[in-house]
Amino acid sequence: MFDLFHNLGLGFGVVFQISWWSPWWLYGLSLPISINILMCLIGALVGTLVGVLPGIGTVATVAMLLPITFGLPPVGALIMLAGIYYGAQYGGSTTSILVNIPGEATSVVTAIDGHQMAKQGRAGPALAIAAIGSFFAGCVATVLIAVLGAPLTKLALAFGPAEYFSLMVLGLIFAVVLAKGSVLKAIAMIVFGLLLSMVGSDIETGASRMAFNIPELADGLGFATVAMGVFGFAEIIRNLDAGAEMNRDLVQQKITGLMPTRKDLIDSAPAILRGTVLGSILGILPGGGAVIASFASYTLEKKIAKNPSRFGRGAIEGVAAPESANNAAAQTSFIPLLTLGIPPNAVMALMVGAMTIHGIVPGPQVMQKQPELVWGMIASMWIGNLMLIIINLPLVGIWVRLLRVPYRLMFPSIVIFCAIGIYSVNNAPVDVILAGVFGLVGYWLIKHDFEPAPLLLGMVLGPLMEENLRRALLISRGDWSVFLTRPLSAVLLAIAAFLLVLTVLPALRAKRDEVFTESEN
Amino acid sequence: MADTMGHSATTTRNTSVVIGFCLLAVAPQIFEFIWSIGTIFGWGAGRGPATVVISHATALLAGAPGALIGAIGGDTKKASSEVLLALIYSYPLFAVAILTIFMTIRSAQDYVGGIALMALALFALWASSDLQGMRGFSFGAGTAPRMFGGLLVALGAGIALTGLLTDGPAMAHYAWRGPLFVMVSIVFFALAIRPLGVVVTAFASFLIAAMGTHETRWVEAIIVGACLTLGCALLFPYVLGLPMPMFPRFLVQ
Amino acid sequence: MTSIRALAAGACAAALASLCGFVAPGAAQTYPTRGITMIVPFAAGGPTDVISRIVTAHMAQTFGQSIVIENVVGAGGTTATARAARAANDGYTLITGHMGTHAASVPLYPKLAYHPEKDFEPIALLAGTPILILARKDFPPKDLKEFVTYVKTNAEKVNAAHAGVGSVSHVSCELLHSILDIKPVGVPFNGTGPAMNALVGGQVDYICDQIVNAVPQINAGTIKAYAIATAERNPSLPNVPTTAEAGLPAFQAQAWNAMFAPKGTSPAIVASLNAAAVKALDDETVRKRLLELGSVIPPPADRTPEALAKLVKNEIAKWTPVLKPAS
After folding, report:
1. Which residue(s) pair with C121 in the sheet?
2. Does C6 touch chain A (CB under 8 A)?
3. Chains touching chain A at 3 or more Cβ pairs under 8 angstroms?
């Protein structure tokens, strides 16, 4: 325990390190500033901005900003990049709630209930609870990294291909559970998403699959492209339908309080707690952990709620739980990087790049060899979360006011922001056209009462599922029983099967009853 | 492709749905034909329109039935991609269209939705038909796409079936103005961003998109569009450091 | 906000510089008169990117012009390379190619949109990154000799990991397998990170990977190294023997990075770029940072455009027979 305080002390010492700044225009006067706090603030601000702007992904931004950090001291550089990463998690919920456009895979679930809340005039409480939940989760997860970082690493290493495959199956079952309409349609959407995810080159043979010799498709469809299409553009097109003006005007008149009421807070407190726990655990798993965390926590809330039908219609727990989970996961996903030196996702890989440029190659000994770096980063995360909530709560008022902008001006602006965002990911104009096509697909899906969230989840988890299935079968030489003989994998599959039965049975019963009553008429 | 079926369907007569399915069944062929028109003007390096029409027509009318009979007779000659398209995609959809004539559709929303998903899945099955299948115990490149394609065909059929068995909503109404102008705006943006730069493209796209609704007031739209363009021109390249051209190429060089 | 402002200032300066170039095109000028774009065909932060940044930073000082790195990812780097091949050959668009994009891609991608020899003017070899044979820490063989016998007798059982088709770890392991004349199961991963995670976690048996990612893991004892596939031992891993010392001299592989310009770039420009690159490689700080990465800096004789052209030719000849049957 003493070690922990010592280490945290070291970390905070690093963050609050004061240097004297004497610009020429102060004529010899020096000002005390802390470069690392400044970096943290810049990171948090840029991250929020990136999260809020639709289309611009964290990976793209960190990649673009990486060169700037080469001129900075390594600790400051990493604190800034980390700030961008979790700042984007805060910002990502904003567009999900306000305009139903999830900027990151982790905020897809937030859009489901968050946007409904906004439509009911409760955008303020939704945004505020997202920020509060994220802050709480961020604080808890930071402590967790400090206390349990090293032992938790074992979890990341215990997950082999078989376990990942089972986890992905579980994740897809979550997607079925979170659908509000027909289970059959939800499953169909997941499979559609899986098919879309298979466009591009095959991981094992490199063969081009369903890419029709279009170079931009050679590496598959981007998440931003499809998400902007089926959520962003489709939503816009639908809102332009004749007769939709009435509803929009209603939304603008209904806006009530900015902050959550006492009841909202009581309702969402347990959800935040559960979301934090789930997110913290799943976040440690490299690749897809954070996405599954947000879906899992939503599913959990829906399953244990007294009245599950509220979900999908503006339940505040449906915002609180996934937002807490994704922020907790964003923090704990640093564990493999800090304890093993292995980057668990693309943003972290870029951070490793930043360290490499500074001559630090992270490895298992990075905690012993670079304690200032590791503990400084951990301490900065807590400070960053504090900054983010201070930045975000006052912003709620501004965001809500944005909803009062007439839609005739709002929608072309969203179109432009989305288009620039998608273009900037790969500098590829074809991506923008593809997003437009997916906008039409999304419009069609809405018209036929298909939900886009399961589709996106299928698309995100699809490659992970297929790759890990193939890896597991390659290692086991085609023996399918590995999924059941490895204990972790078996447990995950059992949970998945249990959940599926729980979801499908009532749905089947309802359908059967419906059929029977129909035939009696 | 599904937009070809934007008519309401009654529960008794399904002519428009049937015509829609028939169109859907030849949609890829039509799309390739439209695409191939570009080769006349020297765009792209595909086949000319005449070749496209002839090859698809022969595949649809003669090649595919021949291959089908051949396959029954145990002949495993490799079929061309046009013939495969006709076999895997067009024929099943024609069959569905013919069946639809005799059906009583109780929920057009579900029925048409299910069939369109089926069409997508069939198309994916065709697109992955040239990929390698299982190699011993390990998956080939085509195994997973075909597996999920098959699954989606079944699910689409299931959804279509619920549309026949249970009552539900009819086809929803489609608007044309919003989708059209938003799409034109997006396509214009994609084509213009490289040669014309952010400033011109963002402003023009904004105004094109604004045409999507009759509520637009032009003076207001032009002012907001100009402010937005200025904001984007500062925000993206400078604050976020995303490299993109600012002004038209011919002005800069 | 210092960094953001610095960036904005830099961008403004670049814009101004290009404007000046526009105003006085007729003035007497020597290459380069404006900023140069260097395409890096991989994500920022990877070995190729880091090497490019270290070298171009020094070259930019020499030229007194900025060199902007543009990371273009996709299809094992071939997307970016195809774009560079089609770029204007005025010396303002260059590319850092590597073993994958300029040699192994030829047999790997039959429909490659460029040819490394015909579509590029070689400028200079920048650095080589040695390749190691690595295994999980509890893999039975103790040294390279035992490793060779073990994988030969257990070729049906062992699992070799690699970071995706066309990656350095994939092609170099294919070379090793062709030398040993075995075909073990190759387990593909999505990049070096996940592959290393699986190796540390003991999910797979061995991998052939670049030194950059491996040094800290070897030092921490989470994985073990059998040999380094270069002629000499590497200063960052003095205890790891070379393949020649350990008894497998045929396995020689290096992930090299080199600078290319589109075909038809004038010889004067190529010469001035080469001179700047050579000067960078002789600079003390550049050398120090490259060596920290475990890179091998080419000796002066290997830094000429002619030597690079020969290297590309030899490498294509070396990889084609190894990779042809695989694809």
Report:
1. C261
2. yes
3. B, C
CA distance C11 to C19: 12
- Give C84: exposed, middle or buried? Use CB within 10 Å, 0-12, 13-18, 19+: buried
Neighboring chain C residues of A203 at a CB cutoff of 8 Å:
164-165, 188, 190
Torsional class of B77: left (φ above 0), alpha (ψ -120 to 50), beta (otherwise): beta
pLDDT digits (tens, 9 = 90+) for C25-59: 333 357 787 778 888 888 776 788 888 888 888 88
Contact of C196 with chain A, judged by CB distance below 8 Å, is answered with yes
- Write the residue in B237, B239, B243 that is nearest to C4 by C-beta: B239
C107, C320 Cβ separation under 8 angstroms: yes
What's the residue count for chain C?
327
DSSP A228: I
CB-based contact, C18 to chain A, within 8 Å: no
- Three-class secondary structure assignment of A282-327: HHCCCCCHHHHHHHHHHHHHHHHCCCHHHCCCCCCHHHHHHHHHHH
Taking the C-alpha atoms of residue A141 and residue A135, their distance in angstroms, rounded to an integer, is 10
Using the Cβ of A431 and the Cβ atoms of chain C, whether some distance falls under 8 Å is answered with no
Give the tens place of pLDDT for each residue, A147-190: 887 777 777 788 888 988 998 898 888 888 877 778 889 999 99
Give tens-digit pLDDT for A315-366: 899 999 999 998 999 888 888 888 877 777 778 878 887 787 777 777 777 7
Q: Please check whether residue A358 is in contact with residue A312, taking contact to mean a CB–CB distance below 8 angstroms.
A: no
Task: List chains adjacent to chain B, taking adjacency as at least 3 C-beta pairs closer than 8 Å.
Answer: A, C
**CB distance B238–C22 less than 8 Å?**
no
| Two structure tokens written together for C212 | 């950059």
Q: Is the ipTM of this complex over 0.90?
A: no
Answer for the pair C58, C280: CB distance below 8 angstroms, yes or no.
yes
Residue that is written with structure tokens 């015509």 in the block: B19
Residue of A nearest to B131 (CA): A209
Taking residues A510-517, what's their average pLDDT?
A: 55
* Per-residue exposure over C276-297, b if at least 16 CB sit within 10 Å of its own CB, e if not: bbeebbebeebbebbebbbbbb
- CA proximity to A381, closest of A156, A78, A5, A128: A78
Q: Which of A202, A425, A480 to mutate to test the interface with B (most CBs of B within 10 A)?
A: A202
In contact, C54 and C286? CB cutoff 8 Å: yes
DSSP of C31-91: S-SS-EEEEESS-TTSHHHHHHHHHHHHHHHHHTS-EEEEE---GGGHHHHHHHHHS-SSS
Output the pTM of the full model. Answer: 0.84
Q: How far apart are the first and last CA of chain A?
A: 72
Q: B115: distance to nearest CA of chain A, Å?
A: 11
Cis status of the peptide bond prior to C32, with omega within 30 of 0: yes
Work out the minimum CA distance from B183 to partner chain C, whole angstroms: 27
Measured distance CA(C256)–CA(C326) in Å, rounded: 22
Residues A483, A480: Cα–Cα separation, whole Å: 6
pLDDT tens track for B187-238: 999 999 888 888 899 999 999 999 888 878 888 899 999 999 998 888 877 7
Beta bridge partners of C185: C159
Pick A475's closest partner by Cβ from C74, C203, C292. C203
Instruction: Say how far apart CA A132 and CA B62 lie, in whole Å.
Output: 67
Residue C103 DSSP symbol: I
Above 50 in pLDDT, residue A95?
yes
